[in-house]
Amino acid sequence: MTNKEQAPVLLILAAGMGSRYGGLKQADQVGPSGETIIDYSIYDAIRAGFGKVVMVVRQNILTEMRALFDNRWGHQIDIEYAIQEVNVPVEGIDNLPERQKPWGTAHAVMVAEGVIDRPFAVINADDFYGAEAFATMSDFLQNQAAPNHYAMVGYILQNTLSESGHVSRGICTADDNGYLATIVEHTHIQRLDDGRIVNTYSDGRQVVLDENSYVSMNFWGLHPAFFAEARQQFKDFVAANRHNEKAEFYIPLVIDTLIKAGKIKVEILSCAAHWMGVTYREDKPVVERKLRKLVAEGQYPENLFE
After folding, report:
1. Is the pLDDT of residue 22 over 60?
2. Residue percentage of the chain with pLDDT more than 90
3. Any bridge partners for residue 11, and if so which?
4. pTM, entire model
5. In whole angstroms, how far apart are CA 103 and each of 92, 247, 253?
6. Which residues pair with 185 in a beta bridge?
């Protein structure tokens, strides 16, 4: 095989509905030459040595996404697409219950199984991770990834908040050897006026979080063995949540279950960078301003496509 065929894959989760943002944020322009956040991720992935991009999208945005990203990047890196719909059939589940809400990020990864045959990274379409994170992850995937050895880029909680509303984060703890010990998804994190960072549960309870905690921004380094493990867990998840429309099958749930079963170890690749993302429409001008600053500093060209 060529080096390109051995190089890691970047899986971009781009099937989100954009309900909090109010539109198709996957294609929204934030860079000085019309770049999307996905464009910056692909640019960073190419220079970090990734050999292929797979995007998980909904069927109704496939044509638009193809037109945009194939034209911009298809001459530099292979791009494929996988379709995530709410009720896409899943191997081993004959009667997947009908529902309106997507099944979650781990389900989004599962639908890409047919186009990924080597170690791969997973990212969100609407999060800007930075060149350092891609370089570190690429090195891990090429030299250390194994069926029992995964990785995640760990950001500091206080560096990942939005000024415009609450965010979802996987709060992490490390063991004595620096590997991920536990990860718990929190879906309503925000900083209060008194400076505390809290998660608010659906029943109104609040818990104060350590602002220096490691959090997952959904930048994972995985081995294809993940697919079989996720499928098995998803069958159990569907059985337990058949009538719970709000239940979502998150990547951290799969990872935490595998850690507790002693099946994997997950290396935390620390990152001190500040998160940028467009969870809310009000986040867009903040991202635009920060990207202009990175361009002025010479970290990115004025036009990624030249």
Report:
1. no
2. 68
3. 54, 122
4. 0.90
5. 16, 7, 13
6. 170
